[in-house]
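Anyone opening a protein record will find just a pair of labelled lines. A complete record is shown below as an example:
=====
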Amino acid sequence: MSLFSSLAVSGSGMSAQRTRAELLVENLANAETTRTPEGGPYHRKDVVFEEDPSVGSFGSELNSAMGTSASGVTVSQTIVDDSEPLQRYMPGHPDADKNGYVSFPKINQAEDMVDLMGASRGYEANVAAISAVKDMIQKSLDLFR
């Protein structure tokens, strides 16, 4: 695997983790949203990662033919949680039904915060990998001087 394909792989990982973090922040921001333009409470969203073999160059194609391939990651889809919302008895709330229950999103804020920390750590790991590759390229250039 070449150094430049390593940069492409880490770049795709950073992009995927950024998308994941954006959705997790959206979930946390809407944890108490009872009314959306679509109607009803907000529905939790999550991403599905998938291998992206298109990341790289001719060298990566050659390496994959030899069995030493490196592929990136991409967000293949965004999943919307369609499970039943949480019901809370709040008869004075403007969105309460005739029985006094309000539908709230089914979001576990602690779980989403842990997932957000994981996305942050994944992003940081890719930044560290890019930094290491940058240092290797710099050392290689220094050897030619």
In short: The longest helix spans residues 109-143. The two ends are 25 Å apart (CA to CA).
